[in-house]
Amino acid sequence: MTRPLELTTDVLVIGGGPAATWAALKAAQAGADVVLADKGYCGTSGAAASAGTGIWYVEPDPEAREKAMASREALGGYLADRRWMVRVLDQTYAGVNELATAGRYPFPIVDGRPLRRGVQGPEYMRRMRILVRRAGVRILDHSPVTELLVAADGSVAGAAGHRLQTDEPYRVRAAAVVLATGGCAFLSGTLGCHVNTGDGHLMAAELGAELSGMEFSNAYAIAPEFTTLTKTAYYSFATFYREDGSVLEGAGSTRGRSVIARALLREKVYCVLDRADAETQAKMRLGQPNFFLTFDRLGIDPFTQRFPITLLLEGTVRGTGGIRVVSEDCATSVPGLYVAGDAATRELICGGFTGGGSHNAAWAIASGAWAGQGAARYAASLGPAANRRPATGAGGAGLRPTGAPDRNLGHRDVVAAVQAEVLPYDKNYLRHGDRLTPALEALHGVWREVRAGLHGTGADAVRTRQAAAMTAHARWMYTAALARTESRGMHKREDYPDQDPAWRHRLLVGGLDEPWTRPDEVAPVGPEEFAALGSPGLAGTSGAYLRAAS
Amino acid sequence: MIEIVSRERCIACDRCVEVCPRNVFDRGADGVPVIARQADCQTCFMCEAYCPADALFVAPLAHPARPDSPLRDEDRLAAAGLLGSYRREIGWGRGRTPGARFAVGPELPATPPPIVTTVTTRTEIGEGIGDTISEEVTR
Questions:
Q1: For chain B, what is the domain count?
Q2: A243, pLDDT greater than 60
Q3: Global pTM?
Q4: Spatial CB neighbours of A322, under 8 Å, sequence gap ≥ 6
Q5: What is the CATH number of the domain that holds B66?
């Protein structure tokens, strides 16, 4: 085997999307030496780069902020925490303004004022890469991480992976690590999400981190059939039709998506964006140019001609679940391990429902900044001795099978087996215990095979680890989905159709061979609890801050 | 998926090799990048956005186009102005204003769609380049 490339640094950021770049930037600004390792190319990889996204950017005006916080609390089932919303709104406002000034992002000017409520993905990530490089961060592109390194005391000590373009293994010794690896869309074909296979979740769990909100994992987006173009928002201008040309009543881009899912189980569904007038059509083109690439290239006028649609699973990319955050600097329960963006749970600001952009984009900026700063502080506290700690690879499934490597078990088979349980609308979207239970059993079976025999080396190890991560991810999703015996947020159970007040708490899930769940002892801080707290100061409260309202 | 690297247009800068988030391209022996792992392409159009020579074409399908597909006909796509169209739309390239400057989308309707009673004729097949595409999409 080739001798690995060896690097040492204070902070290692894993990922290359918005959260990763904000973490790297803020860690570097805090004085840390930083390495950023991206599975793809920092600037193009991930859900944000290829799309356009709104951002939860709200002027610091009390009335506007109150409205922004109140707008989605019911939708999220009141599992959010207003203290986090307040600080995310502040940090997002500062971050977006920094992007505009230091990053020279060309925000639109409307009535003489810049409009900063959204960004175009390619432009945003191109400029974030420039900011990160200018801050002195070393970027490793095409360098997927396959496992974390762990010190004798259980704290994280870096990561190891494989550089795809030079086909060489590498290791980065680091005092602290930020996981910004995104959510998991199970290679469903949703736009820009092929790198989002839940790798960070598996690596964190292997070190003992918990996850939260994994039952809120069934986001599906509308796309023209056989394309990747998931941009559900514009379908609010659509009328949906059955195969026979009759209107599919009740179908819609928001609450009516389950009607579409139900219809798709039986027949093809078509749509026309016939509710957009000429002025709206022109604005749609300006707002999201890549939305029209597909139609223009297929010779379809989406405003007058019907086209078949599908729903693609966005899993925890636009669901809210992720690695549990235990303090306001986005630390996990593993010493030295921080988490940001879609890899982290977003329940803290949106409860059991997100969808695309907006809150996710804001969370990426805010959690990225805090995780980067937190990791820099932690690294400074360890000092230069940190990288002399003995460190061993913590990767299990897909890398170090417990039995003899099974040559008949390929990563493609594993992915196909997992997809068969998580993609179908009648299992994941239209949820019922009678269908979730056998699906979870099947996934446990896949895991046992993966654990015992799935093995890869070199670039192949990247793929076996992805397959293992997707298997683990799916099991946490359905373990939590079965445990939450009610409907709340995006988690809708046909066998438990009502929201149950006894379930107004967040649900933790964890474990690898034996998944477990338990209620989060930290209670949500909704509008009423927040009002009862008065105006709590946010500074210097650290861990106690999170436990204050429990 | 990525279908075309134009041998005529390519300036062998390897930018696509560098920026593809899925590492789909390999450097070619003669300098023109090779589509080495098409199955890994995620149809994100990012390579097109970064190509300074408008030499790439990504078909908007999540599967490979058929060999006889117009989506693999370079001359036809070039004539239709589709090579480099994404880069033009987002305003990247010398002398262009970034599209981000103009990216103000419409207000989304707050009310659910009304039930439409008049049913228009279903049209799947578009004009021009799309003549034979819809069949491909719905196969």
A1: 1
A2: yes
A3: 0.94
A4: A183, A201, A211, A212, A213, A214, A316, A339, A342, A343, A344, A345, A346
A5: 3.30.70.20
Class of domain A5-217+319-393: alpha beta
Domain with residues A219-315, CATH architecture:
Alpha-Beta Complex (3.90)
Confidence check: pLDDT of B113 > 90: no
User: What is the crossing angle of helices A121-134 and A18-29, to 10°?
Assistant: 20
CB contact under 8 A, A241 and B119: yes
Q: Which structure tokens are listed for A264?
A: 């798709």
The answer to whether A468 and A450 are in contact (CB under 8 A) is yes
Chain A residue nearest residue B60, CA to CA: A294
pLDDT digits 0-9 by tens, A166-222: 999 999 999 999 999 999 999 999 999 999 999 999 999 999 999 999 999 999 999
Q: Spell A319-341 as b/e; 16+ CB within 10 A means b.
A: bbbbbbbbbbbbbbbbebbbbbb
Q: Which CATH number fits domain A411-501: 1.10.10.10, 2.40.480.10, 3.30.1330.40, 1.20.58.100?
A: 1.20.58.100
Is the Cβ of B127 closer than 8 Å to some Cβ of chain A? yes
Q: What is chain A's mean pLDDT, rounded?
A: 94
Query: Is A286–B99 a contact, with Cβ atoms under 8 angstroms apart?
Result: yes
Residues of A in contact with B39 (CB under 8 A): none
Task: Report yes or no on B128 lying in a domain.
Answer: no
Give the nearest partner residue to A287 out of B44, B59, B103, using CB atoms: B103
Task: Read off the pLDDT of residues B9-65 as tens digits, 9 standing for 90 and up.
Answer: 999 999 999 999 999 999 999 999 999 999 999 999 999 999 999 999 999 999 999
Q: Does any domain span residue B113? A: no
Residue B86's domain spans which residues? 2-98
